[in-house]
């Protein structure tokens, strides 16, 4: 048969489509569990790293179950929601996007409570915009719901060496011990200050030099996202303490 | 830029030749220097440079391109006699795209952190001109084994440049190699700074330009006439 | 305003060539004269602006996890995103074919100027790159995706025409022999990219 005839072309292409479709579906379906696990483990790893529990990939899941004692879901009034949603499965991006369309009363906010060495810590997932794309992370507060215990940040496409520095230990370490409430109990968040924060500033950390937009994005992200949890913390009774 | 294409007879000889005959060796090693896909043939730069900030993603990228290039070459070479001429290009594209999807799925499953860094650039292997170029120029008219070698060779030559560029950029840009600190802390204390310009996209282009310069001043036959 | 911002970002800040090196192969090969550079630049802009929105619709209504829900609730959990590469490239290739036929029929003048470049574009990384960036950045609406595509195209056009103009002048200068042609073009592009870096961080 002539390979360039219409019939041959048609047979060839239908055959090829079938073969490739089967091949790809088989690969995708058989690898899907691994991929999903990677995504879950990565999230767990980030949550744990915000409370300074570094883990190896193989142990992450066990450590997560050991330390994270409670996961709760809040609405925008700070009330705890019971239902069939688990905090871990909430897609923060979708929840934050609801605010754009004015559906704030449908928003759900996940909160993780970690118990480590007999103390409990509140872990809040955060998300915002950097220079090139989204940035995200987790911020953990001590049981006074005021002092920052640790943070972990991630980013999609910030400039390596500049904006991407927010991922480094050096930058994240600065947040430890900062307060999110001022002395009179108002939420002021922690701000990244260009040119360097004063040594006695309990609400400011040094910006990454040369990465103004990313640094601003980090401040924005913490302020906007943590703000959603303030009603809940206020209800729980914040220790609006001085040092 | 095709003045250096390898002279391969359209119809390979009938008698059985050894697996690594001199001719086959040339297929494998020519792309490393004389016929390098990036610096001589100028193909496939598109997706190459954006991943060269660090060595690890570039090595993974290089391997991915090698795998895709070699295996799509083999597949096309196997079916070269039954591909209808009219839909040749789309058949090639489909085979490459399918290979890339498989590679991407594997990366996502087994080296998740690197696959995140490579983001869209894995997908862009599809339009990497090296692969399409080799399919059209070589695999369509040669047997599977030479095609496989040709694919490996070109993937390797491509990867070589990728790794060299990323080595320079990682060393000067972050003072590390493969994520390990190479430039000792004491030098930083003496006032040495990482050069953040090296990490920026423009420097990748300039480094490739300089590599071409070095290669051509050693290999005079590659110099372009005015 | 959001649209305008995306446009400016795509043209200057996230320029396809200078920030992501997409479409470099044809960028280097066709930038010898301004005339052909303009032709290719127009063709790329044209195809990008058509194919990215089509890929956006494809992504939104077919490929994304749960995208098939509009058919019936049974398909709620179907996730075809692993097929996106092959679907995008197939869409782009067929759009290029289609555009070629339509332009030939209705605008013969345009066809003669774009003609030889159109088939090349199917494998131009910037088109698939545009589609993949659209997917990764999750643009909120069809409008945003279109504006992004148009901006990327205009940015590409700008880059290739500027380079071609420089290369035309370069013929009269004395470049070291081993650097002639390709080498100097790479370095030139690098310098242009440094210039474009000064747009970084602009937000409107």
UniProtKB/TrEMBL annotation, chain A:
Keyword Glycoprotein: no
Cofactors (names): FMN
GO biological process terms held by the UniProt record: sodium ion transport
InterPro entries (alphabetical): FMN-bd, NqrC
EC primary class: translocase
A GO molecular-function descriptor: oxidoreductase activity, acting on NAD(P)H, quinone or similar compound as acceptor
Transmembrane segments: 12-34
Function statement: NQR complex catalyzes the reduction of ubiquinone-1 to ubiquinol by two successive reactions, coupled with the transport of Na(+) ions from the cytoplasm to the periplasm. NqrA to NqrE are probably involved in the second step, the conversion of ubisemiquinone to ubiquinol.
Name used for this protein in its record: Na(+)-translocating NADH-quinone reductase subunit C
Automatic annotation (TrEMBL), chain B:
Subcellular location: Cell membrane; Endomembrane system
Keywords: Cell inner membrane, Cell membrane, Ion transport, Membrane, NAD, Sodium, Sodium transport, Translocase, Transmembrane, Transmembrane helix, Transport, Ubiquinone
Entry keyword annotation includes Electron transport: no
Superkingdom, natural source: Bacteria
GO biological process, one term: sodium ion transport
Catalytic activity: a ubiquinone + n Na(+)(in) + NADH + H(+) = a ubiquinol + n Na(+)(out) + NAD(+)
GO terms for MF: oxidoreductase activity, acting on NAD(P)H, quinone or similar compound as acceptor
Membrane-spanning residues: 59-79, 91-112, 118-135, 155-172, 192-214
Pfam families: Rnf-Nqr
Enzyme Commission number(s) of this protein: 7.2.1.1
Keyword Translocase: yes
A GO term from the CC aspect: plasma membrane
Topology in the lipid bilayer: Multi-pass membrane protein
Subunit note: Composed of six subunits; NqrA, NqrB, NqrC, NqrD, NqrE and NqrF.
Its job: NQR complex catalyzes the reduction of ubiquinone-1 to ubiquinol by two successive reactions, coupled with the transport of Na(+) ions from the cytoplasm to the periplasm. NqrA to NqrE are probably involved in the second step, the conversion of ubisemiquinone to ubiquinol.
Family: Belongs to the NqrDE/RnfAE family.
NCBIfam families named in the record: nqrD (TIGR01939), PRK09292.1 (NF006777)
Protein name, per record: Na(+)-translocating NADH-quinone reductase subunit D
Source organism: Flavobacterium hiemivividum
From TrEMBL, chain C:
Chemical reaction(s) catalysed: a ubiquinone + n Na(+)(in) + NADH + H(+) = a ubiquinol + n Na(+)(out) + NAD(+)
One Pfam family this sequence matches: Rnf-Nqr
Record flagged with keyword NAD: yes
The EC number(s) this enzyme carries: 7.2.1.1
Keywords: Cell inner membrane, Cell membrane, Ion transport, Membrane, NAD, Sodium, Sodium transport, Translocase, Transmembrane, Transmembrane helix, Transport, Ubiquinone
Transmembrane segments: 6-30, 37-58, 78-99, 111-133, 145-166, 178-202
Coiled coil: none
Official protein name in the record: Na(+)-translocating NADH-quinone reductase subunit E
